[in-house]
Amino acid sequence: MTGYPTYYESFDYKQMLQDYPLGDEFTSRFSSMNRTELKALQNERFLNVVKRAWEIPFYQRIWRNAGVKPEDIKSLDDITKLPLISKTDIMDSVEKFPPIGDFHGLDDIPAENRPPIVFHTTSGTTGTPQPLIFGPKSREIQSLLVARSYRFMGLKPATTVQSCYGHGMINGGHYIREAVTHYTNALFLSAGTGLETRSVQQVNLMKTFGTNVLVGFVDYIKRLSDVAREEGLTPGEDIKIDMIIGHLGMESRENIAKAWGGPELFDWYGVGDTGTIAAEGPDHEGMHVWEDAHYLEVLDADTNTPVPDGEIGNMVVTCLYKDDVYPIIRFNTCDLTEVIPTENKMSLPFKRIKGFMGRSDNMVKLRGINIYPQGVGPMLDEDAAFLGEFICKAVRDENGRDEMIIMVEVNIDASQRPQLQAEYERLLKRKIGIAVQVELVSEGELTPLTQVDVRQKPIRLIDNRFSE
């Protein structure tokens, strides 16, 4: 006989809604809160998360190896005594304790008492996918924070939202569907990527069901505007999009808005492990950090020391709500941003950031797929013609579309290269998940670019997308 709780029985759902408000209740609660009151709230939640983390072998091991004892952490002010963690630590846990590691805290819960979990993985672009494990409480708060973001931006009641986020084992599409269906009253079209719902069908869905909000990665959303025109549909007339909510980063908002007939664009930021961290508001002056749910540090990428507001550093995140499954404390996203130093004009106590400004470890997000240049070489190792030297070039064409060109040194004659080039492009599309271009060159030709002869770590990425 089993006695484990059902999903919503495993936590106090009404208390969660009270603790993490959205809509008008959110505005009312936080517009009257000052930074001192916010810090007190953060401190209380931080200590709860740390208490839970000390029960988990993963944190016990890492913190004790760093010389930290439970009594060392008395308040949020002591957070710098704790070491940073990263995806590397999570994957090390998975390797030592397969298949899902020991970072989540499920192992100390008897099977008959274990709560339901939500399980996803990362895309696994460069090898073994990273497990993503969510308890019911933290999963619902993550979803709620997405909906808080959308409603804060101005999502209208009973609108029609079409999502271009992917499904399968990855988290994105499922997470957004839960957010919209649980915490808004929108009609939600879970179209997914172009592989899941053909682009032609996507634009016809918009026309048929009156989609007026598009959410997803903006490079694909931009492509859909071209498909609409190819189908004889005029964005802004036949398909009237009011809002586009995507991951804009350094993208050209003017081009995207023009392509869709002038909708309002909104940016937001989060990673799979942490959920939504910050979102742009109707003020369009950066992204507001949901500091009731996250404690965000911006640290120098080399020294891991705080940088002044207005300077670029790595985003290091502590989730203040994850005191059930997989606590996240000082997680180094390796994503770069800067804190906006001016006052929050929306009368909120929260910091604002500029949003995603690149990766400190050279990860490239291309059309919604994370590409790690260092991992491209191993994808080609199985072919005897590959000499081991390569470099990735991210470029932006005249239409604003991002492309990846992978230059590869090979040991075959020029007459044989067209066939091998096609084989490599097929191989990389299968392993990476999107099409890339391949250029084959002879041995030594890439040395001036990779600087393999003078650098301990060769250059594997040249990102020309944002060059003047």
Automatic annotation (TrEMBL):
GO molecular function terms here?
ligase activity
Q: Which domain of life is it from?
A: Bacteria
Q: Which PANTHER family match?
A: BLR5969 PROTEIN
Q: Which segments constitute the AMP-dependent ligase C-terminal domain?
A: 368-465
Pfam families registered for this protein in UniProt: AMP-binding_C_2 (PF14535)
Entry keyword DNA-binding? no
Q: Which organism is it from?
A: Colwellia chukchiensis
Name of the protein in its database record: Phenylacetate-CoA ligase
